[in-house]
Every structure is written in structure tokens, then in C-alpha cells.
Predict the 3D structure of the following.
Amino acid sequence: MEKFKGVISLAKYDLLVEKVKHQIQNEIWNVGDKLPSLRKQVEISSMSLMTVLHAYQILESQGWIVSHARSGYFVAPKIQYANSEHNSSDAAIHTTENVDINNLIFDVLQASRTPNIIDFGSVYPDPKLYPRLQVNRALMAAASTMPTSSALDNLPPGNKDLRQIISKRYAAQGMNVHPDEIVITAGALEALNLSLQAVTQPGDWVVVESPTFYGSLQSLQRLNLRALSVRAHPRNGIDLDSLEKALQSHSVKACWLMTNHQNPLGCTLSNEKKGRLIELLAEYNVYLIEDDVYSELYFGSKKPLPAKAFDQQGMTMHCSSFSKTLVAGFRIGWVAAGKMALPIQKLQLMSTLSASAPIQLALAKYLSTRNYEKHLRQMRRILEQRKFTTWQILSTYLPSSVNVNYSEGGYFLWVELPKHMSSIDLYHQALKENISISPGKMFSASEKFDHCFRINSSFECLASEEKAIKKLAELIQNSINKGA
Ligand SMILES: Cc1ncc(COP(=O)(O)O)c(C=O)c1O
């Protein structure tokens, strides 16, 4: 009898799952529409609350709908790749002997410093989301109680308490990272740069994603390294078959990859893919420099694992920071460097010496309270709401030939214009209207993504932001009309 009951209820929620799918396919519910609330659906379907909840959870796990804290369930953004670079038959691997990106990045970053700009181009989250008062209080306390030996105590590998706290955060994910493996750095960027320097010589080949965070290209340029850009997909991330071909055809020393909430695409590699990635790199004896600064900003129920969690050989240098979650200006990051911890410390000693002592102390103080977790929970919820709202507004105003890629987590939206268009032109036109965007050229050693741009969705969508999106849409439409 119990078994029979189970079969009936299974059929019931399946029925609702199929019904809602059918309604979405037939555009009764369109992307972004709010679905009937659980209670309303109970009334409509005459099913129990548990059955309806289960059906919605299945639809969510299959990617048909998304839930937003306190606002309900919505039809999930569709990712259309019709005009996407990522599906094209273009080369999946691109080689660049001399990376030359720094001047462009410098110009774009300088231009976005205009006061009162609508800063869709920013790489940092809305600074209002940082717990400024609490962090400042911790800084003041640290500065006033700092022992005179502090400069020495905080030399590489960095503040012991802070390394211990970071090690515990890895342990909470089931990872065993000893504090001695961790080196505290000036932001993730120093961690990434030192890691790359520790395992390469000028002229070596390094794999990056295409598109990639421009910091990796700047680092390659600075160290005279050669770039092998491997295609990444907005939903699934780096194409591992292409990566394998790159490893077969070139003598690669290191891979610099973003495994969670990639910048600029927003995609996260599945655990299965992270495991395969590690296997592949171990087979070719290639170091992984894992750039993982956004993993705390997940929207699901659990923080995504880094690829390092699958690494048995100690070939992964996992780099992260507090710049995206706590405060940007403190410039504190770290690398869990495995067997490269000592060479990295020696390189740090030759360059910046160490991360700032009072700031390391302040962070260790702040992180030893429960405030960080509380803050992160709140920040994730706000980012999720804002990302969805920004995506909805963009989808409402932008012409239908423009594709806005939505991803769960982080705060970037990747926008693809029709292929013949240039986002650099759009960027210049938008700047005159006091709006910044990040043009696609910033994220590639080639011209491949000139028709794309990245939008920061972390700011509250007030009337001024909506007006700016309308303006962007108008500029894009004008260019389409002119056939530009
Ligand atoms: C993917 C990625 N890695 C690294 C960094 C640098 O982080 P930090 O500001 O901690 O140096 C950024 C931020 O700009 C980023 O987007």
C-alpha cells in the first residue's frame, strides 16, 4: 500500500513538471515570467504543497525555472547560442606569440574613473555591499593593538592566524590544505602572478580560456609568455577536448583557468569536469593556476568546489582573495600553493616583500567572528536578485538579435551583439553618455570577442540604471540600423 501511494505521488509531481514544461515551451510562460506561487499552484492543480514544491524543485534542477529568495519562481533565462562565437566552427585554439593588451586595459580602466558614471564596466561589486563599518572597526582595533614585531611576524608566508582561518575554510569544504601551504598576498592578482612566475620561463606556452580575465593576459605580457587560448562556452566553460589538443600540440607549462563563475562568462565547471581537467593536466604534467575569486558568490545551496579539491599530485595553485566579498581596497589574497609554497614566498620576498601587516591583522580579527558568514549570505541574496533584475531589464530593451548570457552566481552578464558589430565602438559611444561597459576585446589576445561586452549586475537597478540600459539599447539599435 505504501509503495502504491509512492507511485501515485510520483506520477502527480511528474505531471506538474510536464505541464509547466509544456507551458514554457508553448510560451504561455516566457523567460523571466513569475510562475504561480506554491500556494497558488496548490489551488490551481489541487495537489499538495509538498507535491508542488517537489515539482518546482525538479524544474529548477533541470534548468527550466529559477528561484529567487523571497520573490518566488521564475522562468529561467534561455541561453541562445544561435549567433554565438562559442558554437562556431572557428578555431577552438588560438596562439599568440606576443600578448599586447596592457595599453587597452589601462585606457578602459582609466576612463571608467569618471565621477558618477553608471559603472556597468566595473570589475568589483557595488561597494555598498561591503560591510565597511565592521571591517573599518577591525582595522582600527588591529592598528592600535599591533605589536612592534608585527612587520616581521607578517612576512611571507603571512599572518599565521589568517592562514589558519583560510585553512579552516578549505576544511569546511572537505579539503585538506595545511596553513603552511598558504601564502598571503596583495590580492589574488599577486597570488596569480607569483604562481605563474614560479612555474614558467620567458617564452613558455601557457593555456588561458577564450575569453579570459584580462589580468591573465597582462601577466603573460609582463613575463614574456606565449598564450594558447582555448575556447570556453558560456554555460559549460572550457572545452576539454580542445584543451587536450592544445596540450598535445604544444609543450605547455601551465594553465591559468577560472573554474567557478568565470570572468567574463560567468560559467562554472561541473565537478565531473573539474575532475577530468585535473586528470588531463596530470597526464601532461602541467601546473594549474586556479583563479577562484568568485566562488563565495554562489546562488545555489552550496559553495562550488575548486578543481584543487580533485588534485592528488599537488600541481594546483589555488588563488583567491577577499576583494570581491569583503573589501576591494585592502588588497589581501592568498595562494594555496602546495609544493610551490616556498618558491612563491621567495619570489614575493624579491618583489613586494609581504602583504600589509595591519591589514592582515584586521582581516584575521574580522574573520574570527561570525560576521563574515552572515555578510556573505546577505550579499549572495542581493547579488542574485540584482543579477536577475538587470538581466530582465536588458532582455526587455535590447534588440532580439542581442544575446544576454545569464549564469547562476557572481555578478557578470556576457552580452553578444550581432557578429559584425564592435563593442569598442559601443564602449566609446556609451562613455559619452556617462555609461561604462567592458568591451570584449579586453578579454582576448585576439579580436575574437570584439562583438561582445560584459555588464556588472551588482548595482541596484534604480531609474538611472534602467535609463542607462535603455540608452545602450538605443545605441545598439542605431548601429544595427546603420549596418555598422
Ligand atoms: C577572475 C579574476 N581574478 C583575479 C582578480 C584580481 O583579484 P584581486 O583584486 O583580489 O587582486 C579579479 C579581479 O579583478 C578577477 O576578476
Observations:
- The pocket of pyridoxal-5'-phosphate is lined by residues 123, 187-189, 213, 215, 258, 263, 291, 293, 321, 323, 333 (CB under 6 Å).
